[in-house]
Amino acid sequence: MKELNPIINLSCAKVYLGYGGTLKIDLGEMVEYTHPHLKGSFHGTWRVSSEYELWRIYKSTEIIAGSYDEESVIETALKIFVDKKLKQVDISESSSDTRLHFGDSLQVDFFGNFFHR
Q1: For the chain, where are the alpha helices, taking DSSP H only?
Q2: Fewer CB in 10 Å around end: N or C, the chain?
Q3: 57: closest CA among 94, 6, 108, 95?
Q4: How far is CA 110 from the centre of its chain?
Q5: CA–CA dist 108, 6 (Å, integer)
Q6: Residues with Cβ < 8 Å from 30, sequence gap 6 or more?
Q7: Which residues, listed in sequence order, are joined to residue 98 by a DSSP beta bridge?
């Protein structure tokens, strides 16, 4: 998907859980929000988010965390993403499941309607 080319090879700056277990991945340089109420808060140049869809994290072929795991398991898995580059994005034609490939054999699967066509 050519529209995603700008995010390929960007480093993961921040990964965290948002409201309702939403997985948020900030890519690229961290920039300050422009809204006055958010002064002093930062976000990545690009953000990929599960938006309430199910997700799973792999290291090679091993599942290391998923959307229904305990928060401590998830937090441990999220820490290893920082500074890893996004290498590739695969989107299933039939299901809209999406896999993000990062350096160091890390992958994130988003299940459901992640990237809308």
Answers
A1: 71-79
A2: C
A3: 108
A4: 9
A5: 18
A6: 13, 14, 42, 43, 44, 45
A7: 91, 110
Q: What is the DSSP letter of 71?
A: H
Q: What is the pLDDT of residue 78?
A: 95
- Tens place of pLDDT per residue across the chain (117 aa): 677 888 999 999 999 998 888 999 999 999 999 999 999 999 999 999 888 789 999 999 999 999 999 999 999 999 999 999 999 999 888 777 899 999 999 999 999 755 543
What is the rounded distance in angstroms from the CA atom of residue 86 to the CA atom of residue 107?
A: 9
**Cα 26 from Cα 42, distance rounded (Å):** 10
* Token output for 12: 């993961």
Pair 19, 74: CB distance under 8 Å: no
For 91, the token pair is 């989107």
Q: Within 13 A of 24's CA, how many CA atoms are on the CB side?
A: 14
Q: Do 82 and 14 form a contact (C-beta atoms < 8 A)? A: yes
Cα Rg for the chain, rounded, in angstroms? 14
